Amino acid sequence: MKKNLPYSQFVGIFLLIADFIIIDFSCKLAYYLRFGSNTNHEDYYVSLFVIFNLAWIASALFNNVYNLETLFKFKVLLTKIFYAFVFHALLMFSYIISFKEHDFARLFLFYSYILAFDAIIFFRIIFILFLKYFKMAGINEKRVVIVGAGYAGNELYHYFIKDKSLGYRFMGFFDDAPEIPSLMIKGKIKHLKDYCIKENIDEIYYALSLTSNDLIKDLADFCDDNFIYFKIAPDFRGLVQKKVNIDFYENIPIMTFRREPLGIAFNRVVKRAFDIAFSLMVICFIFPFIVPVIAFLIKLESKGPIFFKQLRPGRKNKLFECYKFRTMRVNNQTELQATKADPRVTKVGKFLRKTSLDELPQFFNVLLGDMSVVGPRPNLITQLEEYSKIIDKYAVRHFVSPGITGYAQVNGYRGETKQVQLMQKRVEYDVMYMENWSFFLDLKIIFLTVWNMIKGEENAY
């Protein structure tokens, strides 16, 4: 059967092309607003148009702007596009500084960003409305049936009917011994083939036991012969209540309950190489300027050491000495979390915590291999003992090395955890990071961390 271009991929390519056109038109309109009909500068700005578009590709892909799953979540989409433009502006600024292209009119760049941002958002709104109408009107609708009126089939049925914009039209169940009462049961399995041909069914979902090898092969052959997609939705009830992943070792299917990109040796090498390179860059180029100033201010305000060392649980709960700049007056309550208006925190310490500069010494932990630049934040030993008993999957976050910054932190979950729910959310983001790790996700988290450092964080104290 000929494999068609996936729908989501087609939409992504279409939006990328549309963005190119919008950005090009915005730049030209910005040129006209700045210089009018004067074409004396036009050749000089052609190179900027090219760089502008290339930078957009990098920024848009980095921020996952073309992910179809977020297309209908307008708030999420708006946030992604905003971050894409911020990252794009940083790339353009780097280009202008690096190549000393200082002659570009600032007003031209301002007009370009305002026009491009507004035009892309407006186009997205129109496109989303069109796409919803397109799907709800039944155009490109996928007609589906489910073999098996049990738990898995019922779950799948509710997925198909919950949102018409998904593009599915559920036609009915087929089962010899249905477990659930339903008016949508069209008949027994022997009636399935005739019904599919008569009703032009596009997809058949098999939701029965995987032990019926002959039935599965028969239905798969029938689907191939009649250009119907055959998909299996196995019932994992009692085994797992979450997403599973299936890999193949040659012809042997291997099921895992969680995606583990860092379980692949190559990915671990890439992450470790980046950790070493990034840490050395920070230590060699930033430390000589910042550390002496911070050390002087710490010593000036209060007595005690410049650095603070504390045992923290790392990968596989192995304890290591975590380094920080001292932000508190010397005390005997180091296992207690800092609270708002904590009297132990010094004035200098409050600033360091607010800007996350107190974490800088942890780049030495990264070089030593105890930590990574990005990963779940290392909690206190007392927190490990407490939360591992009451929060599901808390220990999972220790499958990887802890990080100086993490996915939970850039999503607002940092600082004091007064409620168990707050730690639960941190754990969810940490596990989400582990399951979706990529080199570009690490870069994104680092960028957002720097951004949060600049603007300051409400929960950092």
UniProtKB/TrEMBL annotation:
Membrane topology: Multi-pass membrane protein
Cellular compartment(s): Membrane
Residue span(s) of domain Bacterial sugar transferase: 271-454
Transmembrane stretches, start-end: 12-32, 44-65, 77-98, 110-134, 276-298
Enzyme class: transferase
The keyword Transferase is assigned to this record: yes
Keywords attached to this entry: Membrane, Transferase, Transmembrane, Transmembrane helix
Superkingdom, natural source: Bacteria
Gene Ontology molecular function, alphabetical: undecaprenyl-phosphate glucose phosphotransferase activity
E.C. number: 2.7.8.31
KW Cytoplasm (keyword) present: no
Pfam families reported for this sequence: Bac_transf (PF02397), CoA_binding_3 (PF13727)
Family membership: Belongs to the bacterial sugar transferase family.
NCBIfam families: EPS_sugtrans, WcaJ_sugtrans
Name of the protein in its database record: Undecaprenyl-phosphate glucose phosphotransferase
Origin species: Rhodocytophaga aerolata
